């Protein structure tokens, strides 16, 4: 059964390599909040939304570029800059694009309104003077970076929907809110409310959706899907079911806005106190604490008869996935500040220390040899 043990060791070291890559991820956020339109339309929340969300994202390690009340030419320049930034190091870059302001749909296509988009008479005007959601999706698609998050708090009433100067109402299908879209691979698109619905502005400085999003991104150890699920639950409850946020996701990897700096793993409590230990001992203690559950399961598999039913194998696969996820989370948090500093000499000293304080994990790692 040594082959099984070796397989588990290989899985673990692949996880370590992945975590090293994740610790070097560059987080880029571009935010636009359009509140003051040239036709004298005023939306009180969007500029505040972009400003406040940007400030909170900066606290979470994002490089933030925030803009307010932008015209179409500026909007295009911002979008171009966003794409260029994402493509500089695509394998190690996560991008977030946020827009708050007026948005509308015509014939199932979504348009975001720059501040100089006024007196729109038909679909051709919308295409000429607005920014299509398709162009934003194309930007992140061609950047080919690791992951993208597009957040639209723009599902407000189309300001031109009932305008007498909007004759295209006779020929085009126009609905309130925004239309559903399909996210490119590696992208999550989040809307402040469900398709063909209108979002609420909220009673404070921020829109209801952005207000709850700011709260949710600060909850430690929530995956990105859990963050938006939390937002949906809160917005639905506060609005008495009138507003239900919606997402379309094709993400292929995990992402966390915030991780908890303290991790408990099998009785080993990892805190800042460990920072005073020599790096090899700190590394050994962290590996011991984080890998104990994984090693226990590996030993359990080693002792099992080779022939197992499909149901037993299914349960083992589920346990294995859970153990890897738990070890991954733990190691990611515990070693992110110093893992890049680990040299071959430190690694050798770590293994000697690990053999003394945690022989089962030491044997497990050495099984690859």
Determine Rg (CA atoms, Å): 25 Å
Helix content: 40-55%
The CATH architecture of the largest domain: 3-Layer(aba) Sandwich
- Oligomeric organization of the protein chains: single chain
Order of helices and strands: HEHEHEEEHEHEEEHHEEEHHHH
Portion in strands: 15-25%
The major beta sheet can be summarized as: 6 strands, mixed
Shape: elongated
Output the number of helix runs: 11
List the strand order in the largest sheet.
2-1-3-7-9-10
Question: For the terminal residues, how far apart are their CA atoms?
Answer: 14 Å
Nearest-integer average pLDDT: 77
- The tally of strands reads 12
Can you identify the CATH class of the largest domain?
Alpha Beta
CATH topology of the largest domain: Rossmann fold
Alpha-beta classification: alpha/beta
Low-confidence stretches: 1-8, 18-23, 161-177, 262-273
Number of domains: 2
Question: Could you explain the architecture of this structure?
Answer:
This protein has 369 residues and is of the alpha/beta class. The chain folds into 2 domains: 25-249, Rossmann fold; 261-366. It is built from 11 helices and 12 strands. It has helices spanning 2-23, 46-59, 72-86, 123-129, 133-143, 208-216, 224-238, 279-303, 310-335, 344-357, 359-366, and strands at 26-33, 63-68, 93-100, 103-106, 109-112, 131-132, 147-153, 174-175, 187-191, 246-249, 263-265, 268-270. Strands 2-1-3-7-9-10 form a 6-stranded mixed sheet, sandwiched between helices. Strands 6-5-4-8 form a 4-stranded antiparallel sheet. The longest helix is centred in the C-terminal third of the chain and has 26 residues, at 310-335. It is elongated, with a radius of gyration of 25 Å. The two termini are 14 Å apart. The relative contact order is 0.12.
């Amino acid at each position: 059964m040594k082959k099984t043990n070796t397989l588990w060791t290989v899985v673990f070291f692949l996880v370590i390599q992945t975590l090293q890559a994740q610790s070097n991820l560059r987080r880029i956020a571009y935010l636009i909040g359009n509140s003051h339109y040239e036709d004298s339309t005023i939306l009180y929340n969007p500029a505040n939304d972009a400003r406040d969300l940007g400030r909170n994202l900066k606290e979470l390690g994002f490089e933030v570029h925030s803009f307010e009340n932008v015209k179409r030419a500026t909007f295009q320049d911002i979008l171009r800059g966003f794409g260029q930034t994402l493509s500089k190091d695509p394998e190690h870059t996560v991008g977030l694009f946020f827009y708050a302001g007026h948005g509308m749909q015509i014939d199932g296509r979504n348009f975001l309104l720059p501040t100089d988009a006024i007196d729109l008479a038909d679909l051709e005007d919308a295409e000429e003077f607005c920014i299509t959601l398709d162009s934003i999706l194309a930007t992140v698609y061609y950047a080919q970076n690791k992951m993208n998050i597009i957040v639209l708090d723009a599902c407000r009433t189309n300001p031109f929907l009932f305008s007498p100067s909007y004759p295209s109402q006779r020929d085009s299908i126009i609905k309130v809110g925004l239309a559903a879209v399909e996210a490119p691979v590696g992208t999550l698109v989040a809307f402040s409310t469900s398709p063909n619905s209108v979002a609420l502005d909220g009673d404070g400085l921020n829109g209801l959706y952005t207000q709850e999003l700011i709260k949710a991104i600060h909850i430690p150890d929530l995956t990105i899907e859990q963050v938006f699920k939390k937002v949906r639950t809160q917005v639905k409850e506060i609005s008495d079911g009138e507003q239900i946020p919606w997402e379309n996701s094709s993400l292929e990897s995990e992402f966390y806005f915030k991780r908890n700096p303290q991790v408990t793993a099998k009785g080993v409590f990892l805190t800042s106190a460990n920072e005073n230990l020599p790096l090899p001992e700190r590394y050994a203690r962290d590996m011991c604490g984080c890998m104990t559950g994984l090693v226990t399961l590996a030993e359990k598999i080693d002792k099992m008869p080779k022939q197992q039913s499909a149901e037993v194998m299914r349960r083992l696969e589920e346990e294995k996935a859970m153990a890897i996820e738990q070890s991954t989370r733990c190691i990611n948090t515990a070693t992110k500040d110093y893992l890049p500093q680990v040299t071959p000499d430190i690694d050798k000293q770590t293994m000697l220390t690990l053999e003394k304080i945690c022989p089962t994990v030491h044997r497990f790692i050495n099984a690859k040899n």
